[in-house]
Design brief:
With 579 residues, the protein is an alpha+beta fold. Helices cover 40% and strands 11% of the residues. 37% of the residues are buried.
């Protein structure tokens, strides 16, 4: 088959269609909005889901929890050192402008809208929507010889039917890496223009071209937990949320995962099933729990005191497999498998497969200036408060002193170590302040909601008092008057707390407040009942902080009026006269 014919066949593949455009195909049996695809040989496609972190740029990241904090007696406790609870960091190499046109068109409406004044933007990576199937594996690996020798692509003879949709298992870690390498080479040769390019939005011809690889453990687990699609609380849970339509309760794991259910009394035998048989996780990924366990990129490390221990072992396998029982499955599950068998051959396992991710260089030349500028800002005290400018920043002044000490290399080296330690501590303080600013915004929104609730109660009390007076029941009217007095005191106290929060918020730079507001807004929008109301109150609080920063004072009556106007309810406290 000629290269021209192959190219024509592959051009028919869907490139980033939404659920209303994408068709049900062997490679995408469950189309979803936001699906992104790359061609495969012989007219196939590899479908991906986007994962993002709101970040200030390529050097920024987000701290997350991995593993699970087992309690004594809980299933899995005795292997806590394997899957132990720990902190790590996640980000992505691609900004929106780095994506090919089709992907950018599909993703843009689904990303959070840019906030005026906020430095945050989605930094993305891409995870395979399904585990790599037998058909996909055959399609790609059949190209290896032609790619190596520069010959014509082979004829298409990939497996068909439901068996072709089974996850490819009985592979070594090296087999999975070879698949990623061959697929990357094939895409680079025939469809380079369809790949994302880290730094494309800065300089189109000098970026970090995307390539296919195994996901890192952090990438895999963040996406498996639900990524940006779930709340911070859900992201910390043992399993991703499995909400059912019309209910706030999780559905059974059996609706989402293939595992051994014999212990549950169903009588079903444990076996591998085609991809897409069950429901997806909140991010749109299928079979992250159960079915085939999945290899990730880096070697295994034990967990010690909340961090990864310093020795490297075999390779990491995530998610559990179809032979596991339900009680042993959780999103942070990880196991160590050997790279080689007892006879020195590559270790393979009939329950283990893989899914792929798209990554890029962390520091492509096109991002050097951006990375350097962000690196210089990290650890600067001037970024913590408006009270210090760059000329007064002790860390920057120390840089100058170190440069002037070039005549004494030993002193210069010692001062350099002190300066780096100072910057590290400042960066830690900055991270803590950012988290505190986010918590302050959420707290203020809740205080504003409380103020509204107090106002509703005052309105109801006033109506009850008026009815009592109309009925001539003075005793009841006096009881209502006392309750109204207490309610007003409570409301005034809540307003005072809100204004205290304004004063605290004004101590942060506007950049910190705006960035944390964007993160908080994303979190609040997920709340099913109060989400819209809390977002409105957080928005007003951020505006009030800006006014307080400018005026260094707050007009309590005006603020109360604005808070109650935001609720859309009558402002009984501000309009009612004395009882």
């Amino acid at each position: 088959m000629s290269r021209t014919l192959i190219a024509l066949m592959l051009a028919l593949c869907s490139l980033g269609a939404g659920a209303d455009e994408a068709e049900n195909t062997p490679d995408n049996p469950k189309p979803l909005a936001g699906d992104l695809s790359l061609p495969l040989p012989c007219g196939g496609e590899m479908v991906f889901r986007y994962v993002y972190v709101l970040a200030q740029g390529a050097l920024d990241d987000r701290e997350i929890s991995l593993g699970y904090p087992f309690s004594e007696g809980e299933p899995g406790y005795q292997q806590s050192f394997m899957s132990g609870y720990r902190r790590d960091y996640i980000s992505g190499p691609f900004a929106l402008g780095d994506l090919p046109a089709g992907w950018r068109k599909a993703v843009t409406p689904l990303l959070p809208k840019p906030e005026a004044g906020s430095p945050l933007k989605p930094m993305m990576y891409f995870m395979g929507k399904y585990e790599v199937t037998r058909r996909q594996y055959q399609q790609v690996m059949a190209q290896a010889q032609a790619l190596a020798n520069g010959g014509e692509p082979p004829a298409c003879e990939a497996e068909e039917g439901m068996a072709a949709r089974l996850p490819e298992v009985n592979l070594s870690h090296f087999d999975a890496e070879r698949f990623a390498a061959v697929y990357s080479a094939w895409l680079n040769r025939y469809h380079k223009d369809l790949l994302p390019v880290s730094g494309r939005d800065g300089k189109s011809d000098d970026g970090g071209l995307g390539f296919v690889r195994l996901p890192t453990e952090v990438e895999w687990e963040y996406a498996a937990r639900g990524g940006q699609a779930v709340s911070r609380q859900d992201l910390e849970a043992r399993l991703f949320p499995r909400r059912q339509p019309g209910s706030d309760q999780d559905g059974p794991l059996a609706d989402y995962a293939v595992f051994n259910q014999v212990a549950g009394g169903t009588g079903q035998g444990a076996r591998l099933l085609p991809v897409g048989t069950k429901l997806p996780n909140p991010l749109g990924l299928f079979d992250v729990i159960g079915n085939a366990a999945e290899m990730v990129q880096e070697p295994f490390q034990l967990v010690r005191a909340g961090r990864r221990q310093g020795a490297y072992g075999g390779f990491v396998v995530k998610g559990g497999n179809y032979l596991e029982g339900e009680l042993t499955l959780f999103t942070g599950m990880r196991r160590e498998y050997p790279l080689f068998g007892a006879d020195g051959s590559e270790q393979k396992n009939e329950t283990t497969g893989f899914r792929v991710a798209i990554g890029a260089l962390s520091a492509p030349r096109s991002r050097y200036k951006e990375l350097f500028d962000q690196w210089k800002k990290d650890g600067r005290l001037a970024n913590l408060t408006d009270a210090i400018d760059n000329t007064q920043d002790p860390t920057q002044r120390l840089d100058g002193i170190i440069a002037a000490a070039s005549a004494d290399p030993k002193l210069q080296a010692e001062l350099g170590q002190v300066n780096e330690e100072l910057k590290r501590n400042v960066a830690l303080i900055a991270q803590q302040r950012e988290e505190a600013a986010g918590n302050l915004i959420q707290s203020a929104a809740l205080v504003a909601e409380t103020i509204n609730n107090y106002n509703i109660r005052l309105t109801n009390l006033a109506q009850g008092r008026d009815k009592a007076k109309a009925a001539g029941n003075q005793a009841a009217a006096q009881v209502f008057d006392a309750a109204i007095g207490n309610g007003r005191n409570a409301l005034d106290g809540a307003v005072a707390i809100y204004i205290d929060n304004l004063a605290s918020g004004a101590r942060y730079t506007d950049a910190v407040i705006q960035a944390q507001f964007q993160r908080v807004r994303q979190e609040l929008e997920r709340k099913p009942v109060l989400g819209d109301s809390l977002v409105a109150r957080a928005t007003l609080f951020v505006r009030h902080v800006g006014e307080y920063r400018k005026n260094q004072r707050a007009d309590a009556p005006a603020i109360l009026k604005q808070l109650l106007a935001t609720s859309g309810r009558p402002t009984s406290h501000s309009t009612e006269g004395n009882p």
